[in-house]
Amino acid sequence: MGNVLENLNPDSFTKDTVFINSLENLINLTRANSVWPLTFGLACCAIEMMATGASKYDIDRFGSGPFRATPRQADLMIVAGTVTHKMAPRVKRLYDMMPEPKYVLAMGGCVIRGGPYVKYGYHVVKGVDLIVPVDVYVPGCPPRPEALLEGIFKIQKLMMREKIGDRARKSTKPEVYQPA
């Protein structure tokens, strides 16, 4: 440890900086390898989400633990299926109940931009990003379990890059959803 500190520029780094960075990396590594997704399936994409949690794909081995039934214990919301105007306030409420830091994964064409209902479906929200900030999009109709696993890997990479004191994501939340 002493050899590493001697090679660094003493004006830009101190022993405290190295300690904080190591602690930050440890915390991010632990968080990234213990992702707890919220059970929230609205339509056919939820079947593929359940298949991802089953024994063939088994997301537990990739550090994404059991699906949680309550938003108070989850740090990842996987929105899977068509979000209607009736369900939109409930999606927002569940997102607001989740503790910080929280992440959102949009799964499927209907969630991302309305899917086949986009032109004539007056009852469908034209993208879940109008309600909650989305971190990762997983396209498909419905996306395969492998695609959902890739989306979870991207969420884990986001968790690894986050700084402890950086909470700029709080200011990027959309306004409260108001149906038209």
Q: Helix tally?
A: 6
**Coarse morphology:** globular
Strand order of the largest sheet: 1-2-3-4
The CATH architecture of one domain comes to 3-Layer(aba) Sandwich
Share of β-strand residues: 5-15%
Ordered list of secondary-structure elements with their pairings:
Blueprint: H1 2-7, H2 15-32, E1 37-38, H3 45-53, E2 76-80, H4 88-97, E3 103-107, H5 109-113, E4 136-138, H6 145-161
Parallel strand pairs: 1-2, 2-3, 3-4
Summarize the structure.
The chain is an alpha/beta fold. The protein is built from 6 helices and 4 strands.
Describe this structure in words.
With 180 residues, the protein is of the alpha/beta class. The chain has a domain at 36-151: Rossmann fold. The protein is 36% helix and 8% strand. It has 6 helices and 4 strands; from the N terminus they run ααβαβαβαβα. It has helices at 2-7, 15-32, 45-53, 88-97, 109-113, 145-161, and strands at residues 37-38, 76-80, 103-107, 136-138. A 4-stranded parallel β-sheet has the order 1-2-3-4. Strand 3, helix 5 (109-113) and strand 4 form a beta-alpha-beta unit. The chain is globular. The N and C termini lie far apart (60 Å). Mean pLDDT is 78; it is low at 1-5.
Features:
single chain, 180 residues, alpha/beta, Rossmann fold, four-stranded parallel sheet, 6 helices, globular, disordered N terminus
